[in-house]
Structure formats: structure tokens, C-alpha cells
Design goal:
The chain is mainly alpha-helical. It is built from seven helices and two strands.
Length: about 210
């Protein structure tokens, strides 16, 4: 009976990155290499920049609940689904949204929403508006118009954000309770006056047609 020398157990092999040979060159398997790099990077402590990036990304991915129109009971197709969509709205889309929710033109429905902005939609009453309206002499006219359009877009975006209840979209006049009450009362009076003017124009046109003036 022959005796066999017991074999020493081999140590576990260290896994290597899969490679392939093509044309005499050694090529790394890209998908597996990327997964390995991601695994290694996940073990590294996050830097300040990466933490800020993740917070900003999470903020932009925040979902927004759609607001329904009082008259139709539907949300506008362009209503932003997330904060990212909100920050990408164009001026035309903002005007369409304001019209859908009765904030572009005053009507009997304009003040039925929790935070109406109908009285401010076409207003440029911010402090920066005056500076942009009269650009310095060294600026070209085209540049001044571009700044005006950019400011108008951001002002409407902020007003729409306030209308749907987003934080940080309040105007300076909203700083205290007294200012908010004065602003709300002024908006009510303005909407009532606009509706009354419209009704008077409609009545004048109707009576004019009845008298044969049309």
C-alpha cells in the first residue's frame, strides 16, 4: 500500500479584471471594469463637492403635486412634474400656465386659488427691474434687451412658484403680515376694477349694436 503525501491547501486566488486579447493587444472588459471602479469609489469617503451635488440632485428630483384648475378640474399639460421641470419652464409655458389657472387675465375665478398672483403677473416691480430697464451706456442695446427678457422670465417663474406654494418665491412685499394683507387687498380691488371695466365695455358694445351703431 503506497502512502500519499497530503497536499497543502492552496490559498484563494485573487480575482483579476477580465481581459481579452485582440490583435496582439490586451483589452479590459469595460462593463466589469466600470462596476469594479464604482465599487471602489463607493468605499471612499464622500467629499464636500459630492455631498452638495447629491443634495442638489435630490432637490431637483423632488416631485411636485399638480394643481387643478377650478373650472376644468384638470392640470395643465406643461405643469412641472419635478423641481427640475420647474426650473426649465419657458416664458411661453409660464404664460400658458397662468392663463390655465386664471392668473394671466383677471376674472371671477382669479382669487379663488389659495395664493393668487394675477395682480403681479405682468408687473415688473422688483428693484432689479429698474436697473435692467436702464442699462449702463457701455452696454449694447441687444444685451440690455436680453437682460430684460431673462429678468422677466425669472420674475414669472418666481410668481408661478409662489402660486403653487413653493418656498423662497415670495416677493419683498411679503415680508410681514401687514404687507401681505395690504397686497392681498390691493389685488382684490384691482381684480374687481378690471372685471368692472370689462363688463362696462361689453355693455357699451351691446347697447351700441342695439342702437344700430355697428
Amino acid at each position: 500500500m503506497s502512502s500519499k503525501t497530503p497536499r497543502t491547501p492552496s490559498s484563494p486566488r485573487t480575482p483579476t479584471t477580465p481581459t481579452s486579447h485582440f490583435g496582439g493587444e490586451t483589452l479590459v472588459d469595460q462593463p466589469l471594469a466600470a462596476a469594479a471602479a464604482a465599487t471602489i469609489s463607493a468605499t471612499k469617503p464622500p467629499t464636500t463637492a459630492s455631498v452638495q451635488y447629491r443634495r442638489k440632485l435630490a432637490h431637483l428630483c423632488t416631485p411636485l403635486a399638480p394643481l387643478l384648475s377650478i373650472t376644468s378640474g384638470t392640470a395643465h399639460p406643461a405643469f412641472p412634474r419635478t423641481m427640475l421641470h420647474y426650473n426649465l419652464l419657458t416664458e411661453d409655458q409660464l404664460n400658458e400656465l397662468a392663463h390655465h389657472y386664471h392668473q394671466r387675465t383677471p376674472s371671477q375665478w382669479s382669487l379663488c386659488y389659495p395664493l393668487p398672483v394675477v395682480g403681479r403677473w405682468h408687473a415688473d416691480n422688483d428693484a432689479a427691474a429698474a436697473a435692467i430697464a436702464a442699462p449702463p451706456a457701455w452696454q449694447g442695446q441687444a444685451q440690455g434687451h436680453g437682460q430684460q427678457a431673462s429678468h422677466r422670465l425669472e420674475a414669472k417663474r418666481r410668481r408661478f412658484g409662489r402660486f403653487v406654494g413653493l418656498r423662497g418665491c415670495e416677493s419683498p412685499v411679503d415680508g410681514d403680515d401687514a404687507g401681505r394683507e395690504r397686497d392681498e387687498r390691493a389685488m382684490e380691488l384691482w381684480v374687481e376694477g378690471e372685471i368692472r371695466k370689462r363688463e362696462e365695455r361689453a355693455w357699451a358694445e351691446m347697447t351700441g349694436r342695439g342702437k344700430g351703431c355697428w
